[in-house]
Design brief:
The strands form two sheets. A six-stranded antiparallel sheet has the order 6-5-4-3-8-9. Strands 1-2-7 form a three-stranded antiparallel sheet. About 35% of the residues lie in helices and about 35% in strands. It folds into two domains: about 55 residues, no CATH class; about 160 residues. Helix 1 runs antiparallel to helix 2. The chain is built from five helices and nine strands. The protein is globular. The protein has about 230 residues and is of the alpha+beta class.
Length: about 230
């Protein structure tokens, strides 16, 4: 632009001035065109990024963790919580055809440290096995050595969605002290690594087989445990 301004001042011929003016206008149009193109490219990049993020957003947090609570008891601190979720039609079909689904509840208790990473004090895992027995035509929910049978799949899922009295901090555990505050976290997930091998391959990147919650974190204050009567 400065070059053409100088050109208009230095060249007396009116034809040359018109030529310089036309050149200046062409460059100006080209500059504005480049600006508009950069804006379009920026919008396209944002649009593509949104498309890439949508599957990840759609596949996360299919299970919602609600009302987590640590309560003192005779054996230690017991955890209760509610899980809000529904099985996908593919998972319902798999269970009815005899595939065992393994749901894993993970619990962590940590203590914040200003000078370093949080100190992880307690880690607990509990596995629930959801299955169907064709001979009895009943659904079974098992954890450890405990088994419960149900007439319908919805009844079994309803019990699975209510976590009650899971002792995650045993009495006498030296890692924690009553009266102090900690950071607790809980999640529930379908463990696809325990599916039969053909189903593991099918489950990779498949939303129909994806069922998990985010970590649910909350501040936990541990009240004193009730006294144990001497026998």
């Amino acid at each position: 632009m400065a070059f053409f301004t100088a050109c208009l001042k230095s060249v007396p011929d009116h034809r040359a001035k018109r030529a310089c003016s036309r050149g200046s206008q062409a460059i100006s149009r080209g500059w504005h065109g480049n600006v508009r193109m950069l804006g379009v490219m920026r919008l396209l990049r944002l649009w593509l990024l949104a498309l890439l993020m949508l599957p990840a957003l759609a596949w996360t947090a299919e299970i919602e963790v609600a009302n987590p609570l640590l309560q003192p008891g005779d054996d230690g601190y017991a955890l209760s919580a509610d899980f809000k979720f529904e099985l996908t039609p593919r998972l319902e079909e798999a269970v009815t055809k005899g595939v065992v689904l393994h749901f894993v509840a993970d619990f962590e208790l940590s203590k914040g440290r200003w000078y370093w990473l949080d100190e992880k004090l307690i880690t607990r895992t509990q596995t629930y096995r959801l299955s169907y027995h064709a001979l009895t035509r009943q659904y079974r929910l098992s954890t450890g050595g405990l088994h419960q049978s149900f007439a319908t799949l919805s009844d079994a899922v309803q019990v699975l969605s209510r976590l009650r009295n899971w002792v995650v901090i045993e009495r006498g555990d030296k890692a924690v002290r009553a009266g102090e505050s900690y950071d607790a976290a809980l999640r529930l997930r379908l463990d696809v690594t325990q599916l039969p091998r053909p189903f593991q391959i099918t489950a990779l990147g498949n939303k129909d087989w994806s069922l998990a919650s985010d970590w649910k974190s909350w501040p936990a204050s541990l009240p004193p445990l009730p006294a144990v009567e001497a026998k």
